[in-house]
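FORM 7B: Structural annotation worksheet

SECTION A. Query
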Amino acid sequence: MKITREIKTAILVIASILLFIWGYSFLKGADILSSDKTYYVEYDNVEGLPPSAPVTVNGFVIGHVKKISLNNKTGKLLVELLITNEDFPIAKSSTVNIYEPGVIAGKQLQIVPNLQDTQIAQSGDTLRGANVPGLTALLGEKLEPIQQKLDRVLSELTITITSVNNVLDKKSQENLKGTIGELNATMTQFHKASNSLNGILDNNKAKIDNVVTNFEKVSSDFNKISSDLEKAELDKAVESLKGTLARVDNLMTSIDSGKGTMGKLVNDDALYNNLSKTSRELELLLQDVRLNPTRYVNVSLFGKKNRPYVAPKVQDSIPK
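SECTION B. Predicted structure
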């Protein structure tokens, strides 16, 4: 059978049309020759979700967003998903979350599979959708109370500054400025003194090193003396001191018991009374000698007779 030119032309036109359809579908992200699956998800808000956003399962990309349209019946946004990887079976009760993987990256879709459900979703089924707060939203929630507190602090600070300005009159402000100026001058003087001290330390560094060296030498000598004292025969000195104290204790015991001369002097009341009486008589004698010296020492050039003896009166004490 001979193929005519008209048949060849018709076949070429049909092939071109099919090739055009396939190319157009391929450019739109759909391959009519593949077994990709399409799912639908409804959301109340898809803000930040771009078309052709990746669809992931546990971070692995298995497809992308094909189309986002408005459902006029429900008023919700209908997102069409194109799943190109068939290695991950998706259960019909799985959830598709809109999430934000990072602060800079845009939003994506995350399929959370329900491994307990054995009913696999077919192409064209509608899955359940949810919104997961991203890092930006969480950061905004955390920063909002901080912003409120900061606004409150700034407001109170403004009130405080206004109150201080009202309290401080022009004279007080000038005095405050003067005080700050004097403080600045003081700090300048302190800086100069610090520089002078650093210069003195630098100039006398050798002397300071010698002082430190001498101190270390003295410390070493002191340690040596301490070591020598530790090696000294202190035990013998302590034993000798104990013997001496024992002998003193025996002596005191003998005195208390009345032995020896000291014991008799300490414990004999008669001897004490005799000594006291003798001391009293000696006191009277010395008193009489002082009052009547001519009675005991009489030098007469003309043979004058002595006066008769008159006993002195007993006095309580010797007159001053």
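SECTION C. Observations
The CA atoms of residues 2 and 120 lie 52 Å apart. Residues 1-34 form one domain.

SECTION D. Sign-off
Analyst initials: ____
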